[in-house]
């Protein structure tokens, strides 16, 4: 049997394998039977060039950290006598107990833990400087009173609770919040205490 010259594909490389690493064909002329025998020859070199071993990657889980949540005061569900005007909320009258206006704000905590609330407020003096505040339930009277130190225009103040008095007992008021949805509830108390926004932050 006489072996003919080997025919290579047009895209064959120097090893005789196609550039795509495919098997090549050898043609042999069979004198006895007349015609050609085709024998597939697999090129190990081509296979090895195509074999890419990817290194294993190991990833360490990093706990999610809650960033501070900023909520415009005008974005909540606000009911009378609280009103929305000029980018803030307030009420024009002083009310007793929980008869004041109500503002509710939904938010979501990514990582369970301790949180504090700060408000961008305008509290002119000691007669116009308070709200009732709680999370996930209505504020319960003076115990949950936020007595705000007077400001000069809009300034940030951290939420405290009056508690059992005679001055604010929880400074700041720290809320332990689980992962998931929550609702901040603010009730009006004194007239002309202005609230522009609230910020909920991890503590400490």
Question: What's the topology here?
Answer:
Elements: E1 2-3, E2 24-29, E3 36-41, H1 44-50, E4 69-72, E5 77-79, E6 82-85, E7 88-91, E8 102-109, E9 113-122, E10 130-135, E11 145-147, E12 155-158, E13 175-177, E14 180-188, E15 194-202
Antiparallel strand pairs: 1-2, 2-3, 4-15, 5-8, 6-7, 8-14, 9-12, 9-13, 9-15, 10-11, 10-14
Describe this structure in words.
The chain has 204 residues and is mainly beta. The protein has 2 domains: 2-50, no CATH class; 69-202, Sandwich (Jelly Rolls). It has one helix spanning 44-50, and strands at 2-3, 24-29, 36-41, 69-72, 77-79, 82-85, 88-91, 102-109, 113-122, 130-135, 145-147, 155-158, 175-177, 180-188, 194-202. Strands 4, 9, 12, 13 and 15 form a 5-stranded antiparallel sheet that branches. It has a 5-stranded antiparallel sheet with strand order 5-8-14-10-11, with no helix packed on it. The protein starts with a strand and ends with a strand.
Summary keywords:
single chain, 204 residues, mainly beta, Jelly Rolls, 2 domains, five-stranded antiparallel beta sheet, 15 strands, 3% helix, globular
Which CATH architecture of the largest domain would you pick?
Answer: Sandwich
Q: Can you give the helix content as a percent range?
A: under 10%
Query: Beta fraction of the residues?
Result: 35-45%
According to CATH, the homologous superfamily of the largest domain is Galactose-binding domain-like
Termini separation comes to 89 Å
Number of domains: 2
Short overview:
3% of the residues lie in helices and 40% in strands. The protein is mostly beta strands.
């Amino acid at each position: 049997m006489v072996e003919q010259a080997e025919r290579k594909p047009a895209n064959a490389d120097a090893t005789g394998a196609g550039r795509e690493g495919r098997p090549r064909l050898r043609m042999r002329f069979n004198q006895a039977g007349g015609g050609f025998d085709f024998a597939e020859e697999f090129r190990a070199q081509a296979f090895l060039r195509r074999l890419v071993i990817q290194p294993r990657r190991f990833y360490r889980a990093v706990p999610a950290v809650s960033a501070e949540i900023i909520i415009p005061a005008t974005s909540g569900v606000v009911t009378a006598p609280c009103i929305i005007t000029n980018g803030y909320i307030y009420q024009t009258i002083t009310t007793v107990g929980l008869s004041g206006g109500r503002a509710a704000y939904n938010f979501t905590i990514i990582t369970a833990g301790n949180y504090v609330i700060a408000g961008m407020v305008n509290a002119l003096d000691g007669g116009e400087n308070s709200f009732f505040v709680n999370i996930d339930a209505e504020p319960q009277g003076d115990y949950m009173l936020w007595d705000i130190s007077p400001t000069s225009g809009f300034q940030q103040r951290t939420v405290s609770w009056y508690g059992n008095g005679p001055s604010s007992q929880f400074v700041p008021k720290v809320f332990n919040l689980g992962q998931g949805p929550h609702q901040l509830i603010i009730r009006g108390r004194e007239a002309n205490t202005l609230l522009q926004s609230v910020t909920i932050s991890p503590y400490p």
